Hints:
Blueprint: E1 4-7, E2 10-13, H1 24-28, E3 31-39, E4 42-43, H2 46-59, H3 68-81, E5 87-94, E6 112-119, H4 122-131, E7 133-139, H5 154-165, E8 170-174, E9 180-183, E10 187-191, E11 197-199, H6 210-221, E12 226-228, H7 233-237, E13 241-246, E14 250-257, E15 260-261, H8 269-285
Residues 35, 182, 185-187, 207, 209-212, 245-248 line the site of N-(5'-phosphopyridoxyl)-D-alanine.
Amino acid sequence: xxxxxxxxxxxxxxxxxxxxxxxxxxxxxxxxxxxxxxxxxxxxxxxxxxxxxxxxxxxxxxxxxxxxxxxxxxxxxxxxxxxxxxxxxxxxxxxxxxxxxxxxxxxxxxxxxxxxxxxxxxxxxxxxxxxxxxxxxxxxxxxxxxxxxxxxxxxxxxxxxxxxxxxxxxxxxxxxxxxxxxxxxxxxxxxxxxxxxxxxxxxxxxxxxxxxxxxxxxxxxxxxxxxxxxxxxxxxxxxxxxxxxxxxxxxxxxxxxxxxxxxxxxxxxxxxxxxxxxxxxxxxxxx
Length: 287
Ligand code: PDD
């Protein structure tokens, strides 16, 4: 059976799923999105993603398309219809359809809601984590509201393509002060030479990663030394370990930064342990 998408109130064949040409998401990137990992057919870190969705919509004055309870039902049904056990679910809300004009349409159209789900091969993901992955660094060139999870992702797309062309999985943005902000679709972490776990503070212009928040809680419960403080590419290259977090990658060890080996070039013990414990916890608590 083929894939099924949810589009504005209806489940349709993925191949036939479409939105209007004057959807403001299509014309202006005027919308937001969320991505949940799916474990055992259930949503990982669901509460954090719902809270961020609500906040992103609020920051852009887009109405919530339905209540959280109703959304949960539609998300679960999308997962079920696509027979996803391990995978990802993507949800996008745009301001809706209106004749092209930059200001918000008045009266506001109904927000447009699209949901898709796909399966991911957990063994391939595990193998990649065992090998570790590479990142490149590049100048930060995004707007000043990266805390809103908008669908306007062109700098992220260009950064990710540059990473791919360099044989890397991710690009880390570096701001004007020479500090790493985050990845194109993940948050950046190191275990520094003092053994402290470091990731940038959320007052900076970064996305407040839900996986990041869960991992901070886990690391604090484990009694690890934590510092929400930025680091430079040189500090990252000289760190004991590096890794990234996100709904797509979970916790993924980084073993190369701009062709410099991190540590001895293999995934470090802290990142490996955090990956295992994060996945175990997420699996237990998925709902
Ligand atoms: N990206 N930073 C950016 C810029 C991101 O796009 C993401 C997630 C993250 C990690 O956030 P979280 O832990 O809440 O997934 C950080 C998703 C997975 C994506 O764009 O596909």
